[in-house]
Amino acid sequence: MNDADRNPTPIEDTRFGGITVHQDGQLRLEVDGEGIPPVVLERDPASETDAQIAIGTRDAAFLTLRIDGREAELKPAKAGLSRRSYRVDVEFEGVSYRLVPDSIPSSRLTRDGAHIGDFSSDGDELVLAEWREDVEVRPLDASVGYALASAFGTGGQPMWMMIVDGVSSALP
After folding, report:
1. Residue 91 belongs to what H/E stretch?
2. Residues 76-86: what's their mean pLDDT?
3. How far lies 79's CA from each of 1, 53, 156, in Å?
4. Overall pTM surpassing 0.70 (yes/no)
5. What is the average pLDDT value for the chain, to the nearest integer?
6. Pairing relation of β-strands 11-13 and 36-43?
């Protein structure tokens, strides 16, 4: 591993400046920046891993999320046919967050039910955020959004497209 792998280039967020997302394999993810609270998401190494999930699992029993050193409640849905089944919820100090796919490449971040931004990531250290102009965006919003987008990826096909793909692959 070279120094560039250990120290990823910060992402330039339009509201919060440089934000660094660092993944340590499928075991640990860190989000940090000068203007945001740090986030650490860790997976229990004893858990089974899914290669399609950057953090390795959607099972909350094997994941620990800490924001600014304090534990947060993380509730990833089990993932199924619908986009909504790929949602990830976080409860932290009375605030509810949800990251849910809303198009093929991106997911919508909500805070207490209000849409605050859109994220795109393939489940790697490159995360793109587009903040809504008509809402107040807080540093905590950025910390949570970048962490969830990197750990679980964003976007998803609509159910009808998955059904068409399944049917067409079953045909001779």
Report:
1. strand 88-92
2. 66
3. 33, 11, 11
4. yes
5. 87
6. unpaired
